[in-house]
Amino acid sequence: MNSSINDPRVTDITDSGSIRLGLFLPQYTKASDGAVTPHGAGVVGHGLIGALADRLNIEMQIIEQPSPPEAIKTLNAGGCDMLILGVEATREKLVDFTPPVIQFDFAYLVPANSPLQETEEVDRPGCRISVPSGHASWMALKRSIVHAEIVGTEIPDESFALVRDGEVDVFALPREQLIDYAALLPGSRILSKGFGYNVGSFAVAKGREQLLAFLSDFVADAKTSGLVKRILDEAELTSRGFDVA
Predict the structure, then answer these.
(1) Could you tell me which residues are beta bridge partners of residue 202?
(2) Rounded to a whole number, what is the distance in angstroms from the first to the last CA of the chain?
(3) Helices (H), 132-208
(4) Helix spans in 26-149 (H)
């Protein structure tokens, strides 16, 4: 590990001996042996906070959560120190965000027999779109969809099951996650044009101004030094629609 730094803004964290990053589904998967593997934005959060933990000479701890709303509740209850989270106006009332870290687009997945060819064709009467409630993709749909029906689920796997079983016409999620789901549904297609972009930042609980300032400085340094870009490239996330914000 690198030598520790002495910054009074994070004394409470360094004194505890660990920094706690909250990840929610589908930012990670968990194997039968309990091993947690980060995915997508979770890879970026894991890589950056892992590097920060080394810098602080402490351990990193992953706090697993089922959804963004539950993760935010845990953050505000003191159950973790930060999240990697899509910036949304409704969330800004609940948490404080660092400057942007990454960005990626939302997209649609359709089954093999779908007549839909372009994103513009999705918002029509009778079309049903599955999406996990409370996720940034769900919020983007709520702002833009006028005619189609939005079918919310608890977790992404449930949204995928609905399109797989023919109960909905379209599955909405960040593009990089849809690439993995498409491999589970032969013949399925991801529509080429996205329906919006998400900017991901670190989120901290309201009232933690010192931690927010510290993380904001860390994010700026991580972007300037190329650390964020290296994490994206090494995880092959750049080819999946991710970029440095």
Answers:
(1) 84
(2) 28
(3) 136-144, 156-164, 175-182
(4) 41-56, 68-76, 89-92, 136-144
Distance CA 128, CA 112 (A): 16
Containing H/E element for 22? strand 18-24
Q: What is the pLDDT of residues 124-170, one digit of tens each?
A: 999 999 999 988 899 999 999 999 999 999 999 999 999 999 999 99
- For the chain, the C-alpha Rg in angstroms (whole number) is 19
Spatial separation of the C-alpha atoms in residues 107 and 63, rounded to whole Å: 28
- What is the rounded distance in angstroms from the CA atom of residue 137 to the CA atom of residue 133? 9
**What pTM did the predictor assign?**
0.83
Q: What mean pLDDT do residues 22-28 have?
A: 94
- Residue 1's pLDDT band, with cuts at 50, 70 and 90, is very low
Question: Could you give phi then psi for residue 134, rounded to 5 degrees?
Answer: 90, -15
Domains annotated on the chain, with CATH: 8-102+199-244 (3.40.190.10), 105-196 (3.40.190.10)
Judge contact between 79 and 38, C-beta under 8 A: no
Q: Which two tokens stand for residue 105?
A: 């687009």
Cα–Cα distance list, 175 to 99, 105, 224 (Å):
23, 6, 26
- Residue 3 pLDDT exceeds 60: no
